[in-house]
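hey
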């Protein structure tokens, strides 16, 4: 039997928690960062001043405002079990001084200096673990890359890996759903002072000026496609934790979601860290908001996130022999299996590549197309698929709160011909069909009228009643189709996860009406197409608000007709990572 989870729930060591007054940490350039410490208390409410192992959270969401949402900026559960928890507003956010420059090199240096400060405090025993979701998970990767001797463990909940490909410019298009929402959230919370004072007023002015001089120009330049902000390069590489993840040396748990905004990057971070440190990956059926709290856990023997984190920190910060290192390497929720499944690694060690072909009659078949199969067409509309699981995903789960089936995964409305979708569907499956990993669509496409185009690809599961449930999706601009074969992932000799450079030099012109091969990265997932259900590929010309071409490119992609060719000479297809059904461990709920 393979490794499995167990519930770790020791009795709290202390009766409650208290917060010390906020204080400033002075960085080497003179900028002051605001920090606050939560300590455990005894039965009389007196603070236990240590020394204690420390949990560090570095946030952009203003600890003075967000810190009163339990488990967001502070974790009282961990503190009651014998930890000090310090939370720091990164520069230019919350009540810290400076200008927020979105994970800049200077901000990353601050993370190291904060670690130095922690080791000098009376409540610290010099052993530090990092914890937190989203922004606070991203800061953890950069902190760990410094290899500070005090840093002993990391619990990163929904971290980003590749800023450009994961979120900001998926497929070469601007994410107009999440990026303005995120920048606005950080900026808005940074305008809330902790208390009125001359220093607070000075900090507020700094934040306003920083927003006007830095944050807003970054958004505008990306949206307009000017100053190179719409291409991958040093700016986005600096802000991509995957670039430093191989420098991490601390035991790490990464939490991800099948509909998280960082769905693509979370398993990549696991891959980058695991050769250098004990690393675990847990992926739930979550959008970003639900993933941040591990909604629905415990389930299927998988504990909730607090119990996971306590298990991890007690093992690596307190040296308690609690067998934390034995839990499964990978735990994933599987759509249509509707439970968590354990495996030995990611990508799944038993996966093999299978190619399915798009056919002129709308079928999806293991047989290649014939010589003269007809092309299919759809109108190029830049705002398709607004009511979809993708829209809910790329607004961090906000739209998921609206009780409409299309935001919960039902994709049938987006497959209506009047809305521009073209679908390709298999015959009903003879047996359950298990997919686990990244997916690639190789499509022969043409823009009949425009000088560029974009394509959105959805993979869905179709029930015997005809309901189509979205499983995962991908997006790609035609002119950004160039590939780097050295960085593209292959399985059984097939490319299964394309890597596009997205540089100005890699742009390839598109001739109106000329068919060209476009490889689309469809983000990794885990799902079963049950016997009697069908696998479907739904193709449209856009996925709004997940992606919108920069304004400078928009006119090249609108009011055209996209042609999808699939013939013996130009065989459009889908490559899937197929795993044997017995790897689902249905009998003993475990896999090897």
């Amino acid at each position: 039997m393979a490794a499995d989870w167990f519930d770790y729930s020791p009795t709290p060591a202390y009766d409650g928690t208290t917060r010390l007054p906020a204080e400033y940490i002075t960085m080497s350039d003179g900028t002051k960062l605001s920090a606050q410490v939560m300590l455990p208390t005894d039965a009389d409410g007196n603070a236990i001043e240590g020394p204690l192992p420390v949990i560090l959270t570095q946030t952009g969401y203003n600890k003075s405002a967000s810190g009163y949402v339990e488990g967001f900026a502070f974790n009282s559960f961990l503190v009651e079990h014998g930890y000090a928890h310090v939370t720091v507003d990164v520069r230019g956010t919350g009540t810290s001084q400076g200008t927020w420059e979105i994970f800049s090199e200077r901000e990353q240096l601050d993370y190291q200096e904060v670690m130095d400060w922690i080791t000098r405090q009376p409540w610290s025993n010099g052993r530090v673990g990092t914890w937190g979701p989203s922004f606070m998970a991203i800061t953890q990767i950069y902190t760990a890359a410094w290899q500070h001797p005090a840093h002993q463990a990391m619990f990163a909940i929904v971290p980003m890996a590749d800023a450009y490909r994961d979120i900001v410019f998926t497929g070469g298009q601007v994410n107009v759903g999440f990026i303005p929402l995120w920048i606005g959230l950080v900026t808005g919370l940074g305008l809330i002072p902790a208390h009125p004072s001359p220093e607070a007023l000075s900090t507020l002015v700094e934040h306003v000026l920083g927003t006007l001089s830095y944050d807003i120009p970054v958004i505008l330049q990306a949206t307009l496609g000017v100053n190179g902000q719409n291409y991958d390069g040093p700016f986005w590489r600096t802000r991509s934790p995957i670039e430093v993840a191989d420098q991490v040396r601390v035991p790490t748990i990464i939490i991800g979601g099948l509909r998280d905004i960082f769905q693509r990057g979370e398993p990549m971070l696991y891959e980058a860290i695991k050769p250098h440190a004990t690393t675990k990956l847990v992926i739930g059926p979550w959008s970003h908001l639900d993933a941040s709290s591990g909604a629905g856990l415990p389930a299927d023997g998988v504990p909730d996130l607090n119990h996971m984190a306590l298990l991890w920190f007690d093992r690596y910060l307190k040296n308690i022999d609690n067998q934390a290192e034995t839990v499964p390497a990978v735990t994933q929720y599987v759509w249509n299996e509707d439970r968590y499944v354990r495996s030995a690694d990611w990508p799944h060690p038993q996966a093999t590549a299978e190619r399915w072909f798009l056919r002129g009659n709308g079928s999806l078949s293991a047989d290649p197309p014939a010589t003269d199969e007809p092309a299919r067409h759809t109108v190029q509309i830049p705002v398709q698929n607004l009511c979809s699981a993708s829209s809910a995903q790329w607004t961090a789960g906000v739209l998921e709160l609206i009780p409409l089936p299309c935001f919960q995964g039902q994709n049938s409305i987006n497959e209506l011909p009047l809305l521009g979708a073209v679908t390709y569907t298999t015959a009903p499956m003879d047996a359950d069909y298990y997919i686990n990993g990244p997916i690639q669509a190789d499509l022969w496409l043409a823009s009949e009228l425009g000088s560029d185009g974009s394509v959105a690809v959805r993979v869905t599961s179709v029930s015997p009643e005809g309901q189509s449930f979205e499983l995962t999706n991908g997006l790609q601009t035609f002119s950004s189709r160039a590939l780097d074969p050295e960085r593209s992932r292959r399985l059984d000799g097939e490319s299964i996860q394309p890597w596009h450079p997205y540089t100005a030099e890699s742009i390839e012109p598109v001739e109106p009406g000329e068919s060209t091969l476009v490889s689309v990265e469809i983000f990794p997932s885990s799902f079963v197409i049950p016997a009697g259900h069908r696998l479907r590929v739904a193709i449209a010309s856009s996925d709004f608000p997940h992606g919108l071409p920069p304004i400078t490119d928009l006119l090249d992609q609108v009011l055209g007709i996209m042609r999808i060719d699939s013939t013996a000479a130009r065989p459009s297809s889908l490559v899937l990572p197929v795993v044997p059904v017995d790897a689902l461990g249905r009998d003993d709920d475990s896999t090897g």
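Confidence is low (pLDDT under 50) at residues 588-592. The first helix runs from residue 62 to 66.
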